[in-house]
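User: Structure please.
Assistant: Input sequence and predicted structure:
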Amino acid sequence: SFCLKGEGLDGSFPAVIDYTPYLKFTQSSDSISSDEEELRTLGSSGSEGSTPEKIDPPFITDENSWYNKCKRVEQKYRLALEQKGYLEELVRLREKQLSESVSQNKLLLQRIEDMDLAHKMEKEQLEYIIVELQDQL
């Protein structure tokens, strides 16, 4: 259930579904294992003072593993690109809503000033009428 009290239902605001809570990074087991593998290779190549016990060729060219790694990177890139596009669209929508709110705020402030001026004029007229009535008594 939901409450409609005080809500404007004229349809001037676009219906927005906020997917921000669902944009979470989940690390799969494949990426965890590839991260661990990268750490091992970086850790072994980063120690220049120690002498390695076994010298491996610099790159093992297994076509299938390189293809899979490329596919995983491409999927991560596409996911990040989609999230970026969504977030940019969300920012544009929020900026538009902000500019509309600012313009509505200006209109309301102008209405308040006009009403205040009308109130002051009406008060002066009533005071003038009171003074005239007092003079007649």
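Residues 64-136 form one domain.
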